[in-house]
Write a structure and sequence with these properties.
Elements lengths: L4 E6 L5 H13 L4 E6 L8 H9 L14 H5 L3 E5 L12 E4 L10 H21 L4
Parallel strand pairs: 1-2, 1-3, 3-4
Helix pairs in contact: 1-4, 2-4
Length: 133
């Protein structure tokens, strides 16, 4: 059995999709190939999201915003969009979900913590559904 490939896509790829990628890697323990990208990647990661992940003992080392490409979508099994749904290329046969989540950009640390908590709950459910742990 091959690993499922999950792609998280948002606008800037420095907040929601970053958190989802790091959390999925943590919970799936290598059983899922995880990617993230943005339709308009920012110049840096959201510092509040990074801080919340680090509070949980999770590293963002090596992470940087990446551009969402058709190839990245085409080679993924599950595509989770977070505010960039209309910008995301569509390929038949892929599983698409749109997670309605607030954008952490410009939010205070407590709001960002709530957003990451919501991402965390959704990620745990997805990892369990994909039956990889």
């Amino acid at each position: 059995m091959t690993k499922p490939v999950v792609l998280y896509a948002c606008v800037h790829n420095g907040g929601r999709s970053l958190a989802a990628k790091v959390l999925t890697e943590h919970y799936a323990q290598g059983a899922i190939e995880v990617r993230s990208a943005g339709s308009e990647p920012g110049a840096s990661l959201n510092s509040h999201v990074v801080a919340v992940l680090e509070e949980r003992g999770l590293s963002v080392a090596g992470e940087a915003p990446k551009l969402l490409t058709s190839e990245t979508v085409e080679t993924s099994d599950v595509v989770i969009t977070m505010g960039c749904g209309e910008e995301c290329p569509y390929f038949p046969g892929k599983r698409y979900e749109d997670w309605k989540l607030d954008d952490p950009k410009g939010q205070d640390p407590e709001t960002v913590r709530r957003i990451v908590d919501e991402v965390d709950a959704r990620v745990q459910a997805l990892v369990q559904e994909l039956s990889v742990v």
